[in-house]
Design a protein that fits this description.
Strands 1, 2, 3, 4, 5, 6, 7, 8, 9 and 10 form a 10-stranded mixed sheet that branches. Strands 12-14-16-18-20-22-24-26-28-29 form a 10-stranded parallel sheet, with no helix packed on it. It has a 9-stranded parallel sheet with strand order 11-13-15-17-19-21-23-25-27, with no helix packed on it. The chain is mostly beta strands and about 450 residues long. It has 3 domains: about 140 residues; about 140 residues, Alkaline Protease, subunit P, domain 1 (2 Solenoid); about 60 residues, 2-Layer Sandwich (Pantoate--beta-alanine Ligase, Chain: A,domain 2), CATH 3.30.1300. This is Trimeric autotransporter adhesin YadA-like head domain-containing protein.
Length: about 450
């Protein structure tokens, strides 16, 4: 890979009364098709090498924002070679540019096809905040040539020194070293602030309002969409009518709104409210810390671990009118409404009422069964007592004689009395007839008749 180290030593604005210095650090990458022979360098030199934003890649990042580079230079041969008569333009995000010349060399390394490149860039001018700039940039890194592409990557460090202000447009106002107001009624207040566009307003160091009616308020804020608003350090509103409020808040979608630290609204008409809230689908709304939407037109309340509470549920319930429904929720937490459940609940309530009636009847029957069981058990105990109390009279000793017996009995708390009679008949064969009886109360009574004899 091709690595270039780009070091900006100083950039000074011509005509400065008291110079102010701003550090700049960054890196850039260029990937371009190998240039065929020709161009402005021929015939003095062997060939012209050109690259710019139209190539595969020609960009970079700095503490002043992203940059793009357009450049051409002359070479004496294929690498290794001297780099001569270079011309460059570095454009910053807000549209400002630095222009100048450079020279250097591409030297062999131990790796075939990889060269150590170094260039010295001399600033000869610029536009916007960098109008009249001067200075030098030391650039160095690695250049690789393979598969028809030249790839170059490097870093830049240094400083920009300026006291210039630029006003271009009817009633434009710029206040602060390096500030620029470029448009009718444009206003820029703060070091390196820029208001590029009619009625654009940039307030704060390095604030950038670069579209019609854009407003950027705060350190390093960016409002680059028409009628966009960015408020808070490093807030960015980059789409038409977008609004970003809060440190590092980003509103990238058309007419989107991001409010809160690191809140992001990246789709058209999306809204993110709360720290790190993210609305990334069209017309979606994320509310609460860490809330994130998952589809268009969705409203997401709270992030992981949050809960939802209605401040006065009684007042909310009292405000309801018309037919009611039952709130439902799916596995993803999406709320819904089901009105059919009320009919099902009514049917269940009717069925439950019928069940209650049946259960009451069954309870009565069970109670009756227990009562009958108690009666049966009591009758059984009385019957046993009655059987025991009846007894047997002894066999009479002579014909015509009658014997008897009387008894009382107790069984498991139940009492009975009874007895029996036995009369011997006047016959040659001993025969007697007898009766027995017992009483245990209520209908628990017994009677017995029989014959007794001997042979």
């Amino acid at each position: 890979m091709n690595r270039y180290h780009l070091v900006l030593v100083s950039v000074a604005f011509a005509g400065s009364a008291s110079a102010q210095t701003i550090d700049i650090v960054g890196e850039n990458t260029v990937i371009d098709q190998l240039t065929p022979p020709g161009g402005r360098c021929v015939p003095t030199y062997a060939n012209t090498v050109s690259y710019g934003p139209g190539d595969v890649r020609s960009d970079g990042t700095t503490n002043l924002g992203p940059i793009t580079e357009t450049s051409s230079h002359c070479v004496t041969s294929l690498p290794p070679t001297d780099i001569l008569d270079g011309q460059f333009t570095i454009a910053f995000r807000a549209g400002d540019t630095i222009t100048g010349t450079f020279s250097g060399s591409a030297d062999s390394t131990a790796t075939p096809g990889v060269f150590a490149a170094s260039k010295l860039l001399t600033i000869t001018g610029g536009t916007g905040r960098f109008a009249g700039a001067t200075g030098t940039i030391d650039q160095g890194g690695l250049l690789s040539v393979a598969a028809g592409l030249g790839t170059y990557t490097g870093t830049l460090t240094g400083a920009i020194t300026t006291t210039a202000t630029t006003e271009s447009g009817n009633f434009a106002t710029a206040y602060g070293d390096g500030s620029a107001a470029l448009g009718d009624y444009a206003s820029a207040y703060g070091g390196l602030s820029i208001a590029r566009g009619d009625r654009a307003l940039a307030v704060g160091s390095m604030a950038e309002a670069t579209a019609t009616g854009a407003t950027a308020l705060g350190d390093q804020t960016i409002a680059s969409g028409p009628a966009s608003v960015a408020l808070g350090q490093s807030a960015a509103a980059t789409a038409p009518a977008a609004t970003a409020l809060g440190h590092n808040a980003d509103a990238f979608g058309l007419a989107s709104t991001a409010v809160g630290v690191r809140a992001v609204s990246s789709a058209a008409q999306s809204t993110a409210l709360g720290a790190s809230a993210n609305a990334s689908f069209a017309a979606s709304t994320a509310i609460g810390s860490g809330a994130a939407t998952s589809r268009a037109n969705e409203v997401a309340l709270g992030g992981t671990g949050s809960s939802v509470r209605v401040g006065d549920i009684a007042a909310s319930t009292a405000s309801q009118t018309g037919s009611l429904g039952v709130a439902t929720v799916d596995a993803n937490g999406t709320l819904g409404r089901d009105t059919s459940l009320f009919a099902n609940v009514a049917a269940l309530q009717s069925a439950a009422s019928g069940f209650q009636s049946s259960i009451a009847t069954l309870d009565g029957r069970v109670t009756s069964l227990f009562d009958l069981r108690d009666i049966d058990r009591r009758d059984m105990r009385k019957g046993v007592a009655a059987a025991v109390a009846m007894g047997h009279a002894p066999f009479p000793s002579a014909p015509g004689k009658t014997s008897y017996v009387l008894n009382g009995a107790m069984f498991r708390g139940e009492a009975a009395v009874g007895g029996s009679l036995l009369h011997r008949l006047d016959s040659d064969t001993p025969v007697a007839i007898g009766v027995g009886f017992s009483f245990a109360g209520e209908k628990n009574n017994a009677f017995r008749a029989g014959v007794a004899g001997e042979f």
